Amino acid sequence: MVAIDRESLASLGPWPWPRDRIAAILDRLAEAAPAAIATDILFEAPDRAAPAVLARRLADALPPDESAALRLRAARLPDHDSTLAISLAAAPVALGFLLAPEPTPPPASPGGFAVLGSPAALTPLAAPGAAIALPALVAAAAGHGAASLEGGRVRAVPLVVRVGDELRPGLVLEALRLALGGSSPLLDAAGPAIRLPQVVLPLDEGLSIRLHPGAPLPTVSAAALLAGEVPSAAIQGHIVLLGGTAPELGALREAGFAPLVPGIRLQAEALAQAMTLWLPRRPAWLDSAEIAAAAALSLLGAAAGAVLPPLALAGFAVAALFAVPVGVLALLSATMLLADPLLPLAALLAPAAIAALAAFIATRASRARLVARFAQSLPPALVARIAREPGLVRIGGEARRMSFVFTDIAGFTTLVERSGPAALIGMLDAYIAGAAEIIARHGGTLDKVVGDALHVMFGAPLDQPGHERHAVACGIALAEYGQDFARRHAAEGFGITRVGIATGVAIVGDVGGGRVLDYTAHGDAVNLAARLEQANKIFGTTVLLDGETAAAQSGEGFRCLGRLAARGRSAAVDVYAPWDAPQEARTAWDEGLAALLAEDADAARAAFTRVAALLPEDAPTLFQLDRLNRGFSSISVDQRGG
């Protein structure tokens, strides 16, 4: 594209330009030997800026005795239209004409245009007449094609138009004809198709190219071309389209792919598609084919809706949403047939949607009955699981790897003794309500509330990837919430919340029968979480977790406190606690643990002393120093004492 853009108008002057400037552009292009040149500029009237025209207009205003001499001189002055005609004759140029509502004789067709068969069924862009360039310019040009575009949003560019009762080529077809040697195009009305040397362009009855823009088209400014800044190699052998792109020229149109597109670019996009044979078309018979396909697909959709369960039906619908558009795209790629996916898709999915709606209504009613029955006795996650499977009333035992969080309020016995019943229940209600929100937010199931203790499960009854991380995050949040609650109720003697967290395989399922149904877990990890909660009193911590839980955490926010010989367990377990400390303290702590592991009391005491110097109030450090002072030098701590 050679664009008459804003840069060109700023450099060479406002539009309209004198036609000797257009001639200079054509001459510069001709020097580079293009395959063809096409322009949508309409040279309908004589150039008013030509010296000869200006002189004749001045002579018309003078008295007869003075005008005769001026008319003589005018005949010898430059005539820009003649200059342009000479430039047109020197290059393979196709001029554009526009369709017009006033009846006129059909425009000239320098290259000829032949029709094979009856064009009665064809529906090209049509008008009673045409606005054409000056006859001398049309006679000088090698091609003459319609540059008109459809009204409204432009989605197609015509290859052939009808002027009155005659068919004429569009500007794109004329440019392509000149580039291929200039032979007359043949319209095969039965196809329909346009036949040119070495190429056949299959079309639909509209005889236009449906726009589907590809890569950006190479464009140069007319000013840059006249300034000699465009190398000949960029033009040689190419088809060049010359036209206006500046908004001041008023040639911008709304297209299917952009809101404001210059008309010459739309012509260029269509020409690029013709050269690559990317010609989507929609023959008249395709409507009937789509209706037949929709009828067949509706039967398939009805059968699927009748026999498939809801989940499979949903998969069928999703597959159809992908398969039908992909099939339409595959048809377009293989045959250039532009099918509409909406009618077949609607015919396929409507029965499936009706069946899915019926299943949804039935499932929702069943779920509501189950929720009403079990909501008061089961955790919400379990109720949701049973609601998804209406036939499930009792869940049998299953082995699952789970995480457990146990909490307890420090000094609760004293609180009970000091508080009245109403005040105690009010505080507990508020405390448990806040804790339950935290548990739900982290995806836990509140298994039991035993007095002031909360038993929480992660990883059941539903699968919960990363339940170890959720459990620890929940435990830390519960401890922080407990500290804040204790601070707000310090006057009543409400204590902090201690938390124990453990992970392991447990047996989980219903316990009870008849009117009593309790979904709970049993296993070593359950007991260990309870023991770890109690072990916080030993280490002076608020949150303790076992090694299996700690191994699933990311980052360095935890420290090993040693090994705990818990009550009821034959083997000691590594215990960890959240810790946010400087690296120097972490290094000293690790050295202290290593010394305990080697039962080197002096080295352990020196390392923990360095931690205490950095963190004077760190309870686990003070605990280890106290043990060392009492003669204990082992890394293991017996929960039963020692």
UniProtKB/TrEMBL annotation:
Residues 403-533 form the Guanylate cyclase domain. GO terms for biological process: cAMP biosynthetic process; intracellular signal transduction. The keyword Membrane applies. GO terms for molecular function: adenylate cyclase activity. The chain crosses the membrane at residues 316-339, 345-363. Keywords: Membrane, Transmembrane, Transmembrane helix. It holds the Pfam family Guanylate_cyc. PROSITE patterns: GUANYLATE_CYCLASE_2. This is Adenylate/guanylate cyclase domain-containing protein. The lineage of its organism: Bacteria, Pseudomonadati, Pseudomonadota, Alphaproteobacteria, Acetobacterales.
